[in-house]
């Protein structure tokens, strides 16, 4: 397996091209939102013994905001919840998905149909 590598790009035509490419891709990106029906269906199908049914609407809203890049504190503030409540809901989602990291949770949500991309309204 090759070693990780990095490339330093200084100001010039290559950097300008890379910045423009990033901006073009960023502008075409779609926000990821949790799809409640698919999430509930997948979660119930693969439930570990002893866990309640599946993620509820608030769990899925928490997940959507986390996938948008918000911190736990920002999610709590936006939804009017306590920080510990958000952390408990994230832990429960991770248990439902059978994962140990938040990155895995995001991957699981996308791979198993918990999410759907939607174009912004307006």
UniProtKB/TrEMBL annotation:
Q: Which organism is it from?
A: Streptosporangium nondiastaticum
InterPro entries xref list: Sig_transdc_resp-reg_C-effctor, Tscrpt_reg_LuxR_C, WH-like_DNA-bd_sf
Q: Which SUPFAM superfamilies match?
A: C-terminal effector domain of the bipartite response regulators (SSF46894)
The name under which this protein is listed is: HTH luxR-type domain-containing protein
In this protein, which residues make up the domain named HTH luxR-type? 52-109
One term of GO molecular function: DNA binding
| GO BP terms | regulation of DNA-templated transcription
């Amino acid at each position: 397996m090759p070693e990780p590598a990095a490339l330093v790009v200084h100001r010039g035509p290559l950097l300008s091209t890379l910045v423009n490419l990033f901006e073009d891709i960023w502008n075409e990106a779609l926000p990821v939102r949790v799809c409640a029906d698919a999430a509930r269906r997948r979660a119930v199908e693969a439930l570990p013994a002893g866990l309640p049914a599946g993620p509820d609407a608030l769990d899925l809203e928490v997940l959507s905001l986390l996938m948008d890049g918000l911190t736990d504190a920002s999610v709590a503030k936006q939804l009017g919840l306590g920080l510990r409540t958000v952390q408990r809901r994230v832990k429960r989602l991770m248990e439902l998905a059978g994962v140990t990291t938040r990155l895995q949770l995001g991957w699981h949500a996308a791979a198993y149909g918990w999410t759907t991309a939607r174009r912004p309204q307006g």
